Amino acid sequence: MNTSVIETSATGTSAFEAARLVLARDVRLALRKRGQLVQPLAFFAIVTTLFPLGISPELSRLRDVAPGVLWVAALLSSLLALEFLFRDDAQDGTLEQHVLSGQSLTWLLFAKTVAHWLLTGLPLAVMAPLAGLTLGVPAAAVSGIVLSVAIGSVALSLIGSIGAALTLGVKRSGALLSLLTLPLSMPVLIFGARATELAIKGAGFAPPLYLLGALAVLGITLAPLAAAAAVRISLE
Amino acid sequence: MLRGVRFCVNAGECLQITGGNGAGKTSLLRTLSGLMYPEEGTISWCGSNIRRDLQAFHADLAYIGHEPPLKPDLTAYENLRYWVGVRRRLANDEMSRELGRMGAEQWSNRPVRTLSAGQKRRVALAGLLLMAAPLWLLDEPTTNLDTEGQRLVGTLIEEHLAGGGLAVAAIHHELTISAALVRRLELSSK
C-alpha cells in the first residue's frame, strides 16, 4: 500500500482518556447487565453462609476457620467473574478494535482489569466483613478484612486477566481458566488469609498486608503486558 | 492460506478483493490490518514495514469486520463514543452529523440490540466516518444493507478516495463506485 495524502482534523485521544472511556464503558455495561454483576457476590454470600450450617453454629469454631472460608470464597467468586472479562469483547469485535485503535493495548486492558476489580473485587471487600460477622468475626477485625480483601483482590483480578486472555479462543474456558489461575493465586490466598487471621486475633496484620501489596504491584507491572500479548495471539 | 499476493494501492484508489467462500478475503484483510502475522512477505504503509511501528499504522487505519463492533446493551451514540472515542475526541454534533448522514439518527438513542442487522451496519459505517482514518479496510461493507444503503456505501468510498484516502474492500457484490477508481484482486481457493 502506498502513501495517502488525506488530511484529517482528528484530535487524538490521550492514553489516559482512552483508558477512562474503556473503564466507563465497562462499568456502564455491567450496570445494565446486573445479573453478571450480582452473580459473584451472591456466590460469595451463599458459600460463606453455608459454612456455619455445615460445620457448627459454635462461634469459636467458626472464628478459627473464618479466614480460610472468606478467602477461598473470595478467590472462587473472583474466578467466576473472570470468564466474562474479555470474552464478550472478543466475540463482538471490540477487542480487535482495541488492538487497532492506535492506543496501547496494554493500557486499555489494564483499564478493563481496573473496571473488573471495581465491579467484583471492591464489592467483595465491602461484603467480606458482613460475611465475617456470620462466622463470628469480631467487629474490630473489619478494617483488616476489608483492607486485605481489597488489596488481595487487585492481585487476583490482575492474575486472572492473564488467564482470561490466554483462554480467549477456548470454548467453555472456565475449567482451563481455573487451572491456569488458581496456582498463581496461591500466594494471594496464603497472605490474605494470614492477614485476616491476625486481624481476627487483634494482632498486627501489616506484614502480610505489605506482601499482598507487593503482589498487587507486581501484578500491575507485569499482568497487563502478559494479557496484551496473550490477546494478540488469541486474535490471530 | 495466501500465496503470491502482491499489490500496491495508491492514494485515491480502491482495491476490491473478490473470491469464493474460504478463498482468504477476510484473512488477507486481517493480515493487512496487522491482526495476523504473515509467514512470509511484508506489508508496507507509507514506504515502511507496518511492523516497525504498528501503533502508528493502526492510528491511520479503520477496519470494519463482518460483524459491527457494537455492544447490544449500549445505544448507537454510546457505542460510537466508546468505540471511536478511544481513538479520537468526538463532539456530540459530529456524531449526530455522521449518524444523520447514514440515516441512523432516528434510532441512535435505542439500545443496539433492538436494531436490525442493516441498522447496525449503518451505525458501524457512521463509526467508520468518525474515525477519520486515511486507510479503510472493509469486510463485506454492504452486507445486510438495502439498495439505498449499498449506494450510500459507494458514495462514502468515492468521497473518501476523492479526499486522498485509500480503501481495500472484500466483497461478494460489486460496489457502486466509478470503475475508474477501482482495481480488482481475485483470490482463488486453489
**CATH superfamily descriptor of the largest domain in chain B:** P-loop containing nucleotide triphosphate hydrolases
Major sheet attributes of chain A: none
End-to-end Cα distance of chain B? 10 Å
Low-pLDDT sequence parts of chain A: 2-9
Output the radius of gyration of chain A.
Answer: 20 Å
How many extended strands of chain B?
7
Please tell me how large the radius of gyration of chain B is.
16 Å
The biggest beta sheet of chain B reads: 5 strands, parallel
Counting DSSP H or I runs of 4 or more residues, the number of helices of chain B is 6
Indicate the structural class of chain A: mainly alpha
Q: What is the N-to-C succession of helices and strands of chain A?
A: HHHHHHHHH
In terms of DSSP E residues, the strand content of chain A is: under 5%
Most extensive interface: A-B, 39 and 51 residues
Per the principal axes of the C-alpha atoms, what is the gross shape of chain A? elongated
Average pLDDT over all residues of chain B: 90
- Determine the oligomeric state from the structure: heterodimer
Terminus-to-terminus distance of chain A? 21 Å
Q: How does the overall form of chain B come out from the CA principal axes?
A: globular
Q: Give the second-level CATH assignment, the architecture of the largest domain in chain B.
A: 3-Layer(aba) Sandwich
